[in-house]
Automatic annotation (TrEMBL):
Residues 46-155 form the Thioredoxin domain. The chain crosses the membrane at residues 29-47, 201-226. GO terms for cellular component: endoplasmic reticulum membrane; extracellular region; mitochondrial membrane. It comes from Ladona fulva. This is Thioredoxin-related transmembrane protein 1. SUPFAM superfamilies: Thioredoxin-like (SSF52833). It is found in: Endoplasmic reticulum membrane; Mitochondrion membrane; Secreted. Interacts with ATP2A2.
């Protein structure tokens, strides 16, 4: 902003003041030249100030939010509430440099693992993250509200997400893999119906049979592993116990 204002100042100085530099330019030409210069610099100014700093996050690069100060939104393109929030979020992202934060966005339709890792149950969902500490934003959703939330450090009054539920924990990583696996199954289900023309019940029947077969195979594998590490003891037949009286009777006979 300062650089653009300084450039404007130089243009005005050259066109209106410096007769030595442009001695043959009349007043009309100077006005036309000034207008052209101002138009060019205005375009540069608004493109510079209006440039969005919104960072697209996914399953591969999400871990960059574990360092620094972030605001992250989870959305879906088909979600009406997300569509209403989008202009406010993009406008808020243009303030990221002034607020010394980074503004990110996650499309849950493309990154289902992250929706499981963060346990996103409603859209849009917004998280505040600072140095790996997560808090869920639940206030009003306008650009001014977001700016005030950061400038006034309102996030300090919010309780952080417990460590056992932290998206960076091992257990939430496992949940993210389960979400990814569920999306793979869903895509297979869709492919069976759309590409192969199977009815819905036919696709479900295939999944049921596959589940039973996989369960049986895993059970056999588990038994084999247990037998390998804890082999069964050989069966020993015990001899009948003979009492002292029986021995005496046998000896008398």
């Amino acid at each position: 902003m300062v650089l653009v204002a300084y450039q404007w100042y130089l243009v005005v100085s050259v066109v209106f003041v410096s007769d030595d530099i442009i001695p043959k330019m009349d007043s009309t030409m100077r006005v036309v030249s000034l207008s052209l210069f101002l138009a060019v610099f205005s375009i540069r100014y608004f493109s510079a100030t209006g440039k969005s700093s919104l960072i697209k996050l996914n399953d591969d690069n999400w871990d960059q939010i574990l360092a620094g100060h972030w605001m992250v939104e989870f959305y879906a393109p088909w979600c009406p509430a997300c569509q209403s929030l989008q202009p406010h979020w993009e406008s808020f992202a243009t303030w990221s440099e002034d607020l010394n934060i980074k503004v990110g966005q996650v499309d849950v339709t493309k990154s289902p693992g992250l929706s499981g890792r963060f346990m996103v149950t409603a859209l849009p969902t917004i998280f505040h993250v600072i140095d790996g500490e997560f808090r869920q934003y639940r206030s009003s959703r306008t650009k001014d509200d977001f700016i005030s939330f950061i400038e006034d450090e309102k996030w300090i009054s919010l309780d952080p997400i417990p460590s056992w539920k932290s998206p960076a924990s091992v257990q939430m990583s496992l949940v993210s893999y389960l979400f990814k696996f569920s999306m793979v199954l869903r895509s297979i289900h869709t492919k069976l119906m759309e590409d192969y023309g199977l009815p819905t019940w036919g696709s479900y029947l295939i999944f049921a049979v596959a589940t039973i077969v996989m369960g049986a195979l895993l059970g056999i594998l588990l038994v084999a592993v247990i037998d390998h590490f804890y082999p069964p003891k050989p069966h020993i037949t015990s001899k009948p116990v003979v009492s002292t009286e029986d021995k005496k009777r046998k000896s008398e006979k």
